[in-house]
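dumping this here before i forget
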Amino acid sequence: MDSKAGSKAGSNADSDGSEVVPRVDTDAALSVPMLSKKRKAQSDTLWCGRPTINGRPMYHEKQRKLLCGVHAINNVVGERLLSRCDVDIEVGLLEPGHGTSDGAYSVTALQRALQKKGYILRKLGGKGHMWLGAQKSGHFLVLGCHRRHRLDALHYVGVNASANVVIDSARKTRLRLDSAGVLAVLSCGIDKLYRIQRQ
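structure:
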């Protein structure tokens, strides 16, 4: 027998060589609260009703085709700032790969269309869902993917930190802005993050 193994065995033995069974303090064991087997519902981060700004319901465009980039920007700024036509014009002026007949616009195409409306997208590097979930002001465009969808198909989501909401045009319900709310929409995390601001 190994000397280490022997010392281990010796630590569980009484002086007469018989094995000692560890005594369990039943009073202490009963005082420890049992952990619930039910997982905390992800819907805890959902708003129960429609969030409002100054008593008015928030603007919300539902997604059509692959126009999530247009809808995300409009939902964040609270009006129909961009149209599909606005971005299609820019796609036509760019090299192939910046959009399809159903949408799926690149950031470059959205950026150029926004500039003509007096807005810009400022890229924020090195910021993740924890940082975004802690923001208290500002409008953001988030690009990421969800495990329920194709991993190579990225999806745009809007974040209105001033109103404390994550707005996904593919969902009917908005989510409260925190790290869990961001991951509930983009469970693979953030691929790219932009601040939407006036020029």
